[in-house]
Fold each of these.
Amino acid sequence: MTAAEAEVLGELRRLRARVPQVTGALAASADGLVLARDTADADAAEGVAALTAAALGVALRLTEATGQGGFRELLVRGEHGYVATYAAGGSAVLTVLAEPRINVGRLHLEARRAGLRIGELVDGALRPRTPAPHEPAPRQAIPPLPSHKPKEA
């Protein structure tokens, strides 16, 4: 487990500690791969992450088609509780399972905070690290695109 994975898992555990009606939480990539989970069933987490990716695709299209801007969150209420998904940075999502008696406002407050922190951790782990001054810069496999600057008058 990488340091970022351990920190994301810690954030999931803190979320569950702050909101006792949360029964499970996972962080996943936007394409449905589990990054970290705090759930009882590992196999179920994989399935939930895959379904989250599918729901995310629909939610993205819906927000775009209706002019509501970028995706922020999705809440589904079932007979036995809630499934809530929150944006977590530019490449991940936080999905939370909760009991039906949860205070949804509290869920949103705490999960949004956790999503921000998880997004920082995941996006930070994906950013290429800057080499130390004595290290040569890594070679780029693909050259950067040329910048398009407006012509000066």
Amino acid sequence: MKTEDMLPACELLNSIGYWSLECWGGATFDSCMRFLDEDPWERLRILRKALPDTKLQMLLRGQNILGYRNYSDDVVDSFCKKSIENGIDVVRIFDALNDTRNIQQAVKSVKEYGGICEPAMSYTTSPIHNEQYFVDLALKFEDMGADVICIKDMANLLLPMAAHSLVTKLKERVKVPIHLHTHNTTGTGDMVYLMAALAGVDIVDTALSPLGNGTSQPATEPLVATLRGHERDTGLDLEKLSEVAKHFRGIADRLTAEGIIDPKVLQVDTNTLIYQVPGGMLSNLISQLKEAKQEEKYYDVLREIPKVREEFGYPPLVTPTSQIVGTQAVMNVLSGERYKMVSKESKGLMRGEYGQLPGPVDADVQKTVIGDDTVITCRPADLIPPEIDKLRSEISDLARSEEDVLSYALFPQVAKSFFERRLAKEQGLAEDSDELIAVLTAAINAYRSGNSHPLIRSVGTAAGAPASNPTVRNS
């Protein structure tokens, strides 16, 4: 969804009375640059101006920030600072493994720069993860300085009765507000929220009906209507919600027609309760299998995921562990032999590079995956030297701000390409990114086939050297 798709709805959204609007972080940052050719920082500033009376919320992956590896503490600190400066109020911070060491720097920084700090428990079920596990984790978060605590149920595994019980226990033991996030993948999300509301949960995440349900959040309007007149009445205006939903219905119809919203991931699938696959992970699996022209192996991969997860010590399936376990399951199925191919990320997870795995790993699988490599037992970020100065130096010719440096830190190739397109547009080298890509592709193809091209010749002339000069041609 482009920023221009959001702006017409902002005035109405701002007047509804939401506790917060989640509009940034997570996968949106990468998507802005990679797919929409938008600057995510500029998007945030625009939304901040358009939503002056509503708290803006983001999702932060702890020491991973918004990427897929651990970053140094100085990068985490700078990112938290700039996010809050540019308009974020609430920072939801989670670690895929629930390793509190991996969120401590982000918690410290968010508190220091005046943000609302919301550590999140990655909810899952396993022989390791029971109700007491999550109560104990919430108490640790409170001791760390949490302003709000989130139950992050990314795969809709928290069932209604369990939600009532967990929220009841948390409200008895924890003093800060409890914020519940689930999806409607298994079709139980609405009931989960109702039972949690009756147990005293403070805040829940919903999505307007045109973009709700399935692997998205339960829809906003039905929950508001259900609680109307009850002691847990949300106070939100159904007429305003209905009006703003009209706008997003048009956006949803267009995204569906363009194939961006896949109806398959909006259907109820109770298999999630067996395979524990969150919505974003389902979308990735479908894409990977389509690319390999092996879509018929979909359910084979789903059956493989719980096996890999158990062998890896029961990590919750949320970014980045969901992608790591999911990709490894795809490799195991498509190669025809389990662990014949092993991803770099699978090796890192087994080595402890992402933090402490919740349960014991399968010794044989670990041997296959990492051989005799030493397993990290300290906080992984303690092994990462400061990075921000090095990153600033690497991208100094294209970066115009500290925000640009941070974009490059998280997604080096994507950000660099985005900065180059931005510069090219400003210099009039292309009217838009599609034209620029077409021009560069033609030049590259000409170069590969040994032919001349106007772009290559002009570079040669500008450099004061013939186009046949190897250095100039390579440039």
